[in-house]
Amino acid sequence: MNLHPNPGTEVLRLGDPLSLPVAHQSIAAALRHAEARGLRVSVAVVDAGGHLLAFSRLPQAPLHTIDIAQDKAMTAVSFSMPTGALGELMSCAPEHVRTCLLLRPRMVPMGGAFPLLVDGRLVGAIGVSGASEEQDTECAAAGCHAIT
């Protein structure tokens, strides 16, 4: 890992896998963003293979947000695109395509997750659940920007 100019933080660079300290940094940034706005969310980071690398939630985040945050991250890494953008694409797809995709386990095509990219290389994704779609997206963006 290449150390960031700010002590105690790391940044991703080309060729590095997504490390646990970097995943925790991303989650911490997303949670700080949520807490500052009085939101109660769950945040998940998955690696490039879609495997859960790190997870945390704020007290009083609804129970279902645990799985939804993980599923959003899985969806973002699977398609290598933000889940909000995937939802927009699906809205233009034929009904049978939308139905088939929505029946897939762990598919959550709504805002709140971003792929984590380093120089165009997919290294993982972050997913947030517990607030409005727009607020989940803002929290996930904060987590994404903290490490990329």
TrEMBL record:
It holds the Pfam family HbpS-like. Gene3D superfamilies: Haem-degrading domain. This is Uncharacterized conserved protein GlcG, DUF336 family. It comes from Pseudomonas linyingensis.
